[in-house]
Amino acid sequence: MRYLRRATHWWGLIEWACLLLITPFLLFATPTRAPLLLVIPVLWVLRRLLLGQFVPRTPVDVIVLVLMAMGGVAFCVSPDPAWSQLKIDALLLGVGFLYATVDLLEPAGRLRWAPAGVVAISIGFLGLGLLGTRWGLKIPQLRTLVAGLPGEIGWLPEGETFFNPNVIGGALLWVLPLSLSLLVWAVRREERRWWWAAANGFTAVLCLGLLLLTQARGAWLGFSVSLLALLVVAGRPLGRIRAALLLVMLLVLVVAGVPVLRQALQIDAASARILSTVTMEQRLEIWSRAQYAIADFPFTGPGLDAFQYVMPVMYPLFQAPPGAIVPHAHNEFLQVALDLGLPGLVAWLALYMVTFWMLWQAYWRSTDSLIWALALGNGGALIAHLVYAMTDCAVLDAKPNIVFWMIIGLSVVLHQAVGRATSR
What angle do CA 380, 274, 125 make, to 5 degrees? Predict the structure, then answer.
């Protein structure tokens, strides 16, 4: 009985440990690894026996149920179920981490573990990005900075030896706003935990440098919009006048810095890929093909991750070279509609809206500085990702997007913590 009570108290940690063990195998999934997915429902059954519920109750339960149901429907209609299984694996793993994060951080006092988790995830993204990114040459002047970096990781499974710089840029958006908000929290709090300030400041500077090296324009734009949004929303603790001045200064620096940057990098529209409109023209064509597919398959979509196979046959591109592979629609909401149908898209939009509502409630109703910082950082990360996802995103099976589900779980914990404090 004593061991049973201990397992109940530490269930969130046990659940997280089990998910971390199977994560590498499911992120680099193959059909032979499908039985590993049984670990997730087994954990939920064990939780039912120990705690009386399969999963903790959250405001997003119905939304998650709709997403999982539409994932099953889209899997059944997929022309290649073995390939579509990769997205099912990623979806179930993400949902597992959502509820595991709630179980881990919901008990009183455990929310203090969140800053350490942000630092750990930031270090993980930094290590993988610096070691395994295949760097582009959109800005020739950055070539000397990336020349000495490896560019490939030989030990990645399933023949994957490198990461796309756009994917690394998008991954950094999950942690940069959180690192910056936690940096402010660590400096301003009464205890002045300088080690947290140093850790978050160090990782934030390195992540900013890596974001610059990725040359991912969508990630740059997403981070800029997120930073502006954080400065506007953070008017309460910073003082509205100070926040307005910071916003004006940032806008002036951006406007004044564009011509200086063009001259310094000697960029002209004929030679620099960073200012080329060819990529945007191609994406506009891809978006039109995605709209055709959604119109033809409104309820189910063409199948999980089937757009790249359906498009060359039914909706061929004219601007792409023959044989070019377009892995996704380069827009998160179009891709969700293609993968999960319009009901899945409605659920996905509802997931964002409910999460923003929970963060807004936590931010404005809390008197805890850590809850304030985490709510602000979570909101900034979601805003940055939304801007980035307008032009470049593969939603369900993108490996860094597992952090998205952790952010949803953390948002639930913040909302519940504020609700308990208000009721008391």
Answer: 45
| Total domains in the fold of the chain | 1
The whole-number pLDDT of residue 323 equals: 66
Centroid of chain to Cα 344: 18
Q: Is the Cα dihedral 96, 97, 98, 101 positive or negative?
A: positive
Give the single-character DSSP code of 396. Answer: T
User: Are the beta carbons of 297 and 341 closer than 8 angstroms?
Assistant: yes
Q: What is the pLDDT of residue 362?
A: 92
Structure tokens at 90: 């990623």
Residue 31 makes CB contacts below 8 A (sequence gap 6+) with 82, 85
Q: Which amino acid is at 258?
A: V
- On the 0-12 / 13-18 / 19+ scale of CB atoms within 10 A, 341 is buried
Distance (Å, whole) CA 9 – CA 412:
19
pLDDT tens, position by position, 12-35: 888 888 998 888 877 766 667 778
Residue 25 has which token pair? 């195998």
Length of the chain measured in residues: 424
The parent domain of residue 408 ranges over 2-423
* Rounded mean pLDDT, 294-311: 86
Q: In which residue are the tokens 């595991």 written?
A: 100
Report whether 71 contacts 344 (CB < 8 A).
yes
Give me the mean pLDDT over the 29-42 stretch: 79
Amino acid letter at 8? T
The token pair at 297 is 């398959």
Residue in the structure block whose two tokens are 């299984």: 85
Report long-range pairs for 79-83 (Cβ below 8 Å, ≥24 apart). 79/302, 79/303, 79/306, 79/309, 79/310, 80/303, 80/306, 80/309, 82/31, 83/305, 83/306
The count of other CB atoms within 10 Å of the CB of residue 279 is 14
Dump pLDDT digits (tens) for 56-73: 999 999 999 999 999 889
Q: What's the pTM value of the predicted model, to 2 decimals? A: 0.86
